[in-house]
Model the fold of this input.
Amino acid sequence: GDSVTQMEGPVTLSEEAFLTINCTYTATGYPSLFWYVQYPGEGLQLLLKATKADDKGSNKGFEATYRKETTSFHLEKGSVQVSDSAVYFCALSDSPNAGNNRKLIWGLGTSLAVNP
Amino acid sequence: GAVVSQHPSWVICKSGTSVKIECRSLDFQATTMFWYRQFPKQSLMLMATSNEGSKATYEQGVEKDKFLINHASLTLSTLTVTSAHPEDSSFYICSARLTPVNIQYFGAGTRLSVL
Done:
């Protein structure tokens, strides 16, 4: 079945460092790919998405490119801030053939701590 | 836009009582809503998919009689934890799917503590 593999954390960086969180997937068909962020004590927020190969999602300085050839959707940010400290989840949406019950398949999450 | 409200944000209850959690899509209609459970420092576990006007689809291992889901309107789904026990203590999160873009928007979650 479909699956998402995300790099294990925690990741600890200094402010203004470069961030990469790796995410790879296995899927039949043509999934959509997402990054969600969960700040401490809060629910999940959609950070960015890509719906087809070579699409680049971007938001708040974060970027991720849908790479079909490497089945990857790595999250990057050029200069992290303390306020970026959160848990980041990579997810894919399964096949359109699932109809109304299309689910999100989740990675295990990567905790990021940014120190001043 | 695409705001999902979840209520309550935190509830403490005695063992054996039932707790209802509401999930509302405030500015869009959602045919499909999802209920998740999240354990500390772990990923989300999908419990069930809630479709407006029909019975919910439960994931394997989730007791449908324990976790009652009702999706009576296009903007409201409820999860009732019946006869709650301490092992039901967890963080419960709902989401509503915005179509046709197929994006799930999440509520802020409900922390349930069963004493």
About this structure: The mean pLDDT of chain B is 92. The radius of gyration of chain B is 13 Å.
